[in-house]
Amino acid sequence: METEKLDVLIVGAGLSGIGAAVHLTKRCPGKSYAIVEARERLGGTWDLFRYPGIRSDSDMYTLGYNFKPWTSRQAIADGPNIMEYLHETVAEYDVAPKIRYERKVVGASWSSDRAEWTVRLAHGDGSSSEIRCNFLFMCSGYYSYDEVHDPHFEGREDFEGQIVHPQFWPEDLDYAGKKVVVIGSGATAVTVVPAMAETAGHVTMLQRSPSYVASRPGEDKFALALRKILPAKAAYLITRWRNVLYQLFTFNLARKRPKMVRGKLLEMVREELGPDYDMTHFTPRYNPWDERLCAVPDSDLFNVIKSGQASVVTDHIDRFTPDGIFLKSGKQLDADIIVTATGLKLQTGGSAEFDVDGETVNFAETVNYKGVMFSGVPNLGMTMGYTNSSWTLKADLTSEYLCRVINLMDRKGYDSATPTLPAEGIELEPLLDFTSGYVQRALSQLPKQGDRKPWRLNQNYPKDIINLRHRTIEDEALVFGKARKSKSEPSDSASREAVAA
């Protein structure tokens, strides 16, 4: 079996993995690294999802990297524009030669004797290989690419039309002039509905309960004006910080004064749809930011509702019928195509199996350390973005922090860094304080967080800047060590293979 030795292995060639490669190149220039990507192309989420209207639900001045200004006019960008940005980044920083496509991580084993991970890879052609590395950086995202949340609907097999999940969108789906029902009310649903409504006969968004939906400008006039008078980097930085602080302000305001924020959000919807519209379809049962707010660019969802091209129905599904969906209210929704925008399946570390010195790692039994590492797991970092802001804000800081850890280990001659829980123990809490269905379904399988630093998961970018970029690396919780054996000595497994040979 082919075995390669690297300093750092990055898993995933999406937004996080490409960013991690650039940060590593800039901050740890002497380190050897590679990116392994299970798919045949880079891009992650932005290449995987091909449904109509695919776009960011965060502004690109915060979803973009801190080292590369976003220069397109779009603030809420579509998938192709984001992919172009990623390809530009790869070209600018010569990342392409480092990416190994169709390499899926199926397992990773840590040896304290050698202070190394041995990562097992399954290739797209059916072969396999191993890579040994000192540091493993998981940038594989937070959800499964292979599985989705696809609840059972009674009578599903009776439906004579086509059923499609957005994660597995068929390239040849023809919905022109057809009746479409989109099941769901989250970010995917509010994106698909206006995009399909442009050519479909009619699109119905069927939801069990409403979400908060707010319109945002597709272009940021403030940012565009700044570009005319300032260099691109300066304009980008100012816009980025303006948007970060605004997001943080509105989130904190929603937590402190939920009734006021709720009233303002509902008032904005009334202004969009008019005084006669039935507001029950946009009046959630929960408080703002208990779930992620759905942003729609330039009122596109509201516009297709006002034009009659789309409509919203709030009800429960009784069963599928040959012609559509029968609701518990007794109404029938006719459909030629049903889109099940029913959510993602969350996971930690992809589908790979991890072990430390032969002991299986169950991430659900670990505790988050600074939102970057996990208790008892050496030399492993993972990108976990914010739930209340842009993913890349945290991804950038995670990469910066891990580079700091690696550089400190080099300076002081350490081979390992392991987050270690205090002897007196800590109170454990769920990792995420979010009521969204996709989060609640996965909480029991996610790592935990503690009741105090550094075991808390911040949802606050300025605080994380202090904690991850400026605070000292060495604390009581992060235990550094050295390999128990010389790395030139063969591992036990290598010795066995040599004897067998």
Question: Major sheet: size, sense and barrel closure?
Answer: 9 strands, mixed
Report the CATH superfamily of the largest domain. Answer: FAD/NAD(P)-binding domain
**How does the overall form come out from the CA principal axes?**
globular
Total number of β-strand segments? 27
Region (Disordered): 480-501
Keywords: FAD, Flavoprotein, Monooxygenase, NADP, Oxidoreductase
GO molecular function, one term: flavin adenine dinucleotide binding
Family: Belongs to the FAD-binding monooxygenase family.
What does this structure look like?
The chain has 501 residues and is α/β, with parallel strands linked by helices. The protein folds into two domains: 2-145 and 345-500, FAD/NAD(P)-binding domain; 150-342, FAD/NAD(P)-binding domain (3-Layer(bba) Sandwich). 30% of the residues lie in helices and 25% in strands. The chain is built from 13 helices and 27 strands. It has helices spanning 15-27, 45-48, 60-63, 79-92, 187-197, 221-229, 232-256, 258-273, 300-307, 391-412, 437-440, 461-470, 492-500; strands at residues 2-11, 33-37, 99-101, 103-111, 116-123, 128-138, 143-148, 162-164, 179-183, 202-207, 213-216, 294-297, 310-314, 317-321, 324-327, 332-334, 337-340, 344-346, 353-356, 359-360, 368-369, 373-374, 380-382, 416-419, 428-430, 448-450, 478-481. Strands 1, 2, 3, 4, 5, 6, 19, 20 and 23 form a nine-stranded mixed β-sheet that branches. The chain has a five-stranded parallel β-sheet with strand order 8-17-9-10-13.
